[in-house]
Amino acid sequence: ITFQRKGLPLGTMGWPFFGETNEFLKLGPNFMKRQTIRYGRIFKSHILGSPTIVSMDPELNRYILLNEAKGLIPGYPKSMLDILGQRNIAAVYGSQHKFLRKSLMSIIGASMVKDRLLPRIDKYMRLHLSNWDAMVIDVQQKCNDMAFLIGFTQIVEAELSSIYDGFKVEFDKLVTGSLSLPINLPGTSYYRGFKGRENVVKILRRLIEKRRAASPATTYDDMLEHLVRDGALNDEEVIDQVITILYSGYETVSTTSMMVVKYLHDNQQALEELREEHFAIRRRKGAGEPVDWADYKSMRFTRAVVLETLRLATVINGLLRKATQDIVLNGFLIPKGWKIYVYTREINYDPILYPEPLKFNPWRWLDKKLESHNHCLLFGGGGRLCPGKELGIATVSTFLHYFVTTYRWEEIGGEKIVEFPRVEAPNGYHIRVLKL
Ligand code: HEM
């Protein structure tokens, strides 16, 4: 039932300008829990520069994601939109969003993973993991490099080695800037983020010109070529699509991979079962034969491990939306322009959906119904359900395939992994690796 209540949800707005950002960042999930106890599962606040309604209500969260057309568009912070570009998919809605999304699906969707992307993931994953024997490695750093390498080779394979290092440095500035406060003064991350974007754009423009000028006989086979030859997008759109793809598949894939290594280390029984699944694949194949789509589809336990990792680590805390007009949700009035934080973290620890929620238990996902459950929002939902879902899972799965069939490892020990606002190991996560 929807009935008009008194207006805004309960809650506190904190200090002028800063609002409650400080408490939110410091207390993290506990701030959310405290406010919920005081004010209910839908409360108002002022965080990250905007008046915001926080929703921890699973039904309402789902409703918001499914009803973008009612005026609930993405509401990511200004710094992110500025630095990711005007034609970034999170900056558009309605027919423009449909148009960009269709183009995106045609290059990163599941059928592309099957035919075109998986062979390249396999090739570069093997290369990346080839020389870890008898080394102490920082898993966080290696997973960061891995996620970027895999994303970048899909986009520009031919020019890879000549531009990789320079491009990554600039792209990392862009990423940091997109998550910073929008203060445009020399020395700030935001300012550096813009410089990073400028340089990224410069490099991409050069590549696009080169591709356009190439004779048809020169064949490239990568996403940039697909985007340029397809002709549906102009150069600005091609550039922002490339940035979108690299950005969205970067921290998500790298954090998930690091946490998988952590959880498998702590849960030897899961590691044994996972190894067995991958050795079974190796036994079916010749030495050095790449992992293909049928192999990927057979990795049932691996998929369960990846989903359990996304859940338990909460790689993504929530999604941001913005009301384009006054809108009534659950009887509350959400004023035009307010942000809505669709906070999904707590769903991950719901003891009814996930009994013993703090336990790493990949077996729970072997019941397929859990993944398609209405409240499983690990990859979002509705019209913005992650288009890179299979690509992301396939990347982490291929990483695991080569990692667990080639190596065993032990922790150096004692290193902290923080879970909020981002999952991160402040001093790295070091392990000693040995060939099996
Ligand atoms: C484990 C890996 C991943 C996770 C957990 C993840 C999660 C998500 C989530 C929750 C959303 C919804 C955002 C929203 O509604 O505001 C999303 C959207 C998106 N993801 Fe992923 N993602 C992953 C990997 C990838 C990869 C590998 C790519 C591309 C290479 C990708 C590309 C995108 C794009 C472009 C969107 C925006 C879609 C739209 O606005 O229509 N993701 N992802």
TrEMBL record:
<dbReference type="InterPro" id="IPR036396">
    <property type="entry name" value="Cyt_P450_sf"/>
</dbReference>
<dbReference type="GO" id="GO:0020037">
    <property type="term" value="F:heme binding"/>
</dbReference>
<keyword id="KW-0503">Monooxygenase</keyword>
<dbReference type="GO" id="GO:0016114">
    <property type="term" value="P:terpenoid biosynthetic process"/>
</dbReference>
<dbReference type="InterPro" id="IPR017972">
    <property type="entry name" value="Cyt_P450_CS"/>
</dbReference>
<dbReference type="GO" id="GO:0016020">
    <property type="term" value="C:membrane"/>
</dbReference>
<dbReference type="GO" id="GO:0016125">
    <property type="term" value="P:sterol metabolic process"/>
</dbReference>
<keyword id="KW-0812">Transmembrane</keyword>
<keyword id="KW-0349">Heme</keyword>
<comment type="similarity">
    <text>Belongs to the cytochrome P450 family.</text>
</comment>
<dbReference type="InterPro" id="IPR001128">
    <property type="entry name" value="Cyt_P450"/>
</dbReference>
<keyword id="KW-0472">Membrane</keyword>
<dbReference type="GO" id="GO:0005506">
    <property type="term" value="F:iron ion binding"/>
</dbReference>
<feature type="binding site" description="axial binding residue">
    <location>
        <position position="386"/>
    </location>
    <ligand>
        <name>heme</name>
    </ligand>
</feature>
<keyword id="KW-0408">Iron</keyword>
<keyword id="KW-0479">Metal-binding</keyword>
<dbReference type="Pfam" id="PF00067">
    <property type="entry name" value="p450"/>
</dbReference>
<dbReference type="GO" id="GO:0016132">
    <property type="term" value="P:brassinosteroid biosynthetic process"/>
</dbReference>
<dbReference type="InterPro" id="IPR002401">
    <property type="entry name" value="Cyt_P450_E_grp-I"/>
</dbReference>
<keyword id="KW-0560">Oxidoreductase</keyword>
<dbReference type="GO" id="GO:0016712">
    <property type="term" value="F:oxidoreductase activity, acting on paired donors, with incorporation or reduction of molecular oxygen, reduced flavin or flavoprotein as one donor, and incorporation of one atom of oxygen"/>
</dbReference>
<keyword id="KW-1133">Transmembrane helix</keyword>
<dbReference type="GO" id="GO:0010268">
    <property type="term" value="P:brassinosteroid homeostasis"/>
</dbReference>
<keyword id="KW-0732">Signal</keyword>
<protein>
    <recommendedName>
        <fullName>Brassinosteroid-6-oxidase 1</fullName>
    </recommendedName>
</protein>
